[in-house]
Amino acid sequence: MGCKESTTSNKTSRVAALPFYKEATFTPHWLDATSEAADIIHRIPSFNLINQLGEEVTEKTFKDKIYIADFFFTTCPGICPKMTANMMVLQEEFINNNDILLLSHSVTPETDSVSILKHYAETKGIIDRKWHLVTGDRKQIYDLGRQAYFAEEDLGVNKTEDDFLHTENFVLIDKNRHIRGIYNGLNKTSVQQLIADVKTLQKEN
After folding, report:
1. Domain harbouring 68, CATH code
2. What is the DSSP string of 31-84?
3. I need a labelling partner for 72 at 20 to 30 A (CA). Which of 145, 146, 156, 191 fits?
4. CB of 132 within 8 A of CB of 101?
């Protein structure tokens, strides 16, 4: 445990401030966070989903919060268990920080009901108030994944909600719903970089 904490605390952000992102190429835009340009750049739109407690989760749930978003499904046998384990690292790192939340969207909402998400959360040790697992309208979730978070990496490929959404990416969102980073949720080094970048983002006015 001590070694893990040391690794986290010694990791520093690559930059003094984080860039903004506005499209799927994830080209960084270096803006003053207080500028008008930063204010009008792409942000996550309004949404309405349901979490593992059966509660409504909207963009207002994350008002004045930094959060990390990903996309998963409870029966995934491949990458999802490792992604969940790395999200758990984030939960533990920011357990006492009320300004940091986690948001995992089910990409199989037709089968991931509230009760199934609740059971999954209990099995994995997910803390409800820190980490929201959400289900809801499939089209809304897929539109969020592809058009809001740009979570998939298949650039230039037109897809609909009939095409399965599967991505290992974690997306960092600031208090104004702007995208500030994307990370490989399977890679421990990338997750440690995400932790460092969250701490950098916290220092932003």
Report:
1. 3.40.30.10
2. --TTSHHHHHS------EEEETTS-EEEGGGGTT-EEEEEEE-TT--SSHHHHH
3. 156
4. yes
Number of domains comprising the chain: 1
3-state secondary structure of 2: helix
Over its C-alpha atoms, the chain yields an Rg (Å, rounded) of 16
Using one digit for the tens of pLDDT, what is the confidence trace for 136-173? 999 999 999 999 999 876 554 565 555 657 788 999 99
3-state helix, strand, coil in the chain (%, to 5): 35, 20, 45
DSSP codes joined into one string, 3-27: HHHHHHHH---SSSS--BB-STT--
What are the φ and ψ backbone dihedral angles of 101, each rounded to 5 degrees? -125, 165
* Residue-wise pLDDT tens digits, 89-108: 999 999 999 999 999 999 99
Provide mean pLDDT across the span 19-41: 93
Continuous H helices in 67-173? 80-93, 114-124, 138-143
Instruction: Supply the range of the domain harboring residue 132.
Output: 2-202
DSSP class of residue 29 equals B
- The residue type of 81 is P
Entry pTM = 0.89
Are residues 68 and 103 in contact, defined by beta-carbon separation less than 8 angstroms?
Answer: yes
- Residue carrying the six token digits 């001590």: 2
Would you call 166 exposed, middle or buried from its count of C-beta atoms within 10 A (0-12, 13-18, 19+)? middle
Helix or strand (DSSP H, E) at 198: helix 188-202
